[in-house]
Amino acid sequence: MQTKKWVFGFDELDAVKNQVGEDVDAVRGLLGGKGANLAEMVRIGLPVPHGFTVSTEACNAFLKSGGTFPKGMWDQVLSALQTVEAKTDKRFGSDDSPLLVSCRSGAKFSMPGMMDTVLNIGLNSQTVAAMIRLTDDPRFVYDAYRRLIQMFGSVVMGIDDEPFEAVITAARRAAGVENDTELSAEAWQQVVLHFKAVYRRHTTHDFPEDPLKQLKMATEAVFKSWNGKRAVDYRTAAGIAHDLGTAVSIVTMVFGNMGDDCATGVAMTRNGSTGENHLEGDYLTNAQGEDVVAGIRMTRDISLLKEEMPAAYTEFERIARLLENHYREMQDMEFTIEKGKLWMLQTRDGKRTAQAAVRIAVEMADGGLIDRQTAVLRIKPEQVDFFLHPQFDPKATAGGRLLARGLNVSPGAAVGQVAFDANMAESWAKNDGKSVIMARPETKPDDVHGMLAAQGILTSRGGRTSHAALVARQFGKPAVVGASTITIDLTNRLMTVGNHTIHEGEWISIDGTTGVVYEGKLETMVPDIKDPWLIKLLSWADEFRTLGVWANADYPQDARRALEYGAQGIGLCRSEHMFFETDRLPHFQRMILTDYPVERREALAALLPFQRQDFAGLFRVMQGRPVIIRLIDPPLHEFLPDLVELVSELADLKIRLKHAADMAAIDTLLAEIRQKELLRKRAQSLREANPMLGLRGVRLGIYIPELTTMQVRAIFEAACMVVKEGIDVHPEVMIPLTSHVNELIRQRSVLEAEARAVMTENGMEIAYKFGSMIELPRAALTADRIADHAEFFSFGTNDLTQTTFGISRDDAETGFLIEYMESGILPANPFATLDRDGVGELIDMAVKRGRTTKPALECGICGEHGGDPKSIALCHELGLSYVSCSPFRVPVARLAAAHAALRDKQKKST
Ligand code: ADP
Ligand code: MG
Ligand code: MG
């Protein structure tokens, strides 16, 4: 039986493909990215030093066996080495023309700097002498030798750099020079002796003189570095599998440190931060590879190489262009120039910012290098998000003082003076023009004005769909929630982390992208949202997608933003948000508090003009696009002050009453007590053990029909008004929390009568739809009957997830749900990404059943999931008509929907 092939020469790509097939991914899997690309560069005729790659399979076999090379591997290495010797006309370990090699790690996915490489393998006392004879440059040879001992010592034997650095420092001092480059050959020769002593002291062995032993030990060490802590941590963070293994590439050494006609450097074909199409990079003359990244010497900009070594530069420029065209991707390359001759040592796809990624993809498509589909697929939807929020300067976060960590619920950077309540936040921002971070234990609907005025939001409690998180995302406010190590002391107006205190008014910085809270005022950068490349890319995405993208917007300014970002309709206007505003809340509370129908009607009549004006504003902005208005949804107690606070305020007032000095004071106190007492009683009577499953949604409309009737009147009066202004209007009236079709039938008859009445009063017809949210399992299960009485469905996936799992999201997201995800009981947070098997199945069923009754039934989703790329892909699969998300997620959703459509197309064509 033939033994397996573990080792492949750079010119043996055919043998590789025999083993794993033509697939680029499989080739990279076997040779690692570095090995695969070295072989590919050889194939297309680029100057790469001779060499070969030991496969990842060999690494895995080695690691599995507990540290022995698989059978036949070492023999294959030796024979590959012979081939290299023949090609280079040098011999490993020979004392007339010695071959030196590097032993380099390289995994399937690039893990920059995570694993190890040893250069100059093959040097020992004899070969050093030979090299000196050949080069006539003892300084260079001893420098190379000491590098080998240090790298080998650190990579193979785990010796710290310090004892080595100490030797060099001492040598510099003895010679009275500042830089390593000024050290003489003799000095380096001494350094080598000392390095060998360091090596022996730390390992109790002599430095191995046998080149083959060096090569073997280095190969073993590189294999083992796959499981080094650094590499494991990196893979965990980057989501790279732990069982891929690393390949080892053995490469003939070329020298950038043999004089002033030598250099070494790294360069990218395009600018990694901006995407501009020109070479970017750094180099050093008379240096070896690792010096460039190590930062010991000041590197020079690649453009200077043009003057210093014009021929080599021109050649490099040509190869860079060629490689980019070949891979159809921006390349990141390592090169070395030895006595004027250019050698390519590595190429890989370059890392880049979101901005650069978009510009590069678009320019490559415009230049015909890739097609538009590829360009669209190259950008991850999440990358689009970076364009919409200010970010911290990375330099600032690196130097920042970390205060706490929480959930990164709404991306972007925010800097401000901390304020501990909404009124303070609003007044500081509006009256004093301050930048404010509003920090609260958690937020409530009546905190919204403060949140809007603030630059960012911080809470110590609450989860990803807590009120704070939702509102923050809705308005694109950076937010960190559930930073549980922070204790906010509202009485003393301060917050503490451990024994560290921040007083109200002090500066803090929060990073909603990472969930980190910093002390002080960090520098931010505002990325350009008018980015022309992004606009172009998204317009291509629009041509590919079939799913509509709508937005959740309660106010005209949100709608305007949504439109600007490309929304095609409003999928959710939460009509009750408007009741929380200061000029409306008293009327609404009066409506709740009264026992008299007349007074209730009066209160509602007072609210009508407000709602009409709000809806008219939305209709005007949306210019005939669909606008779905959801009738009142939350339980009424949310509109009243907190019961516990009321009780303590009452106790306070009663004490003050006891000590009141005069009649006038007593009178005001009594009136206040009466009012508070009324609020307390009502709040008490509205108290429910489980308000989220209580009197809310359609149940409210059935309980207080005048309330929803008023809302419908407002919608249709607004519609008539705006149509009269010559603007097309398409309202869709949505009933929340339906569980039984009878609820819908009952509400619909009342509401349609009102709609009809308004249209008759105005003498006009408005084309409208009447529909239901599907956010309870029962509604999904009976969707065929519900569809008899609805023209559209909108899946409220927040509640649907909550009621399907029987998990209260706000409690769970900071508690056991986290553990569920960490321990793998749940693969992902179902409140962030739609649960395909459960909630997805219910949606699928509801869409199908609904459409058997009404084939043209419009189906969309308006939960938080509407802005999540994975959930959007599922919505595409389930045949929904649109997703609706916060305006700030609209661009992300447009791209995600295009990805879903393109992947679908690819799947069907294969
Ligand atoms: P990393 O993956 O950390 O970049 P590399 O294996 O690419 O590690 O090597 C580290 C440095 O050594 C790079 O600058 C590389 O260009 C250089 N290098 C590697 N092999 C050789 C060689 N055979 N000749 C000259 N320089 C080399
Ligand atoms: Mg490299
Ligand atoms: Mg709901």
Sheet-strand content, in percent, reads 15-25%
Corresponding CATH architecture of the largest domain: Alpha-Beta Barrel
Measure the end-to-end span: 37 Å
Number of helices in the DSSP assignment: 37
Helix fraction, binned, reads 40-55%
Tell me, what's the shape? elongated
Structural class: alpha/beta
**Ligand types:** adenosine-5'-diphosphate, magnesium ion
Whole-number mean pLDDT: 92
CATH class of the largest domain: Alpha Beta
Largest β-sheet summary: 8 strands, mixed
Any idea what the CATH superfamily of the largest domain is called? Answer: Phosphoenolpyruvate-binding domains
* Unreliable segments of 5+ consecutive residues: none
The CATH topology of the largest domain corresponds to TIM Barrel
Tally of distinct domains: 5
> What's the Cα radius of gyration?
35 Å
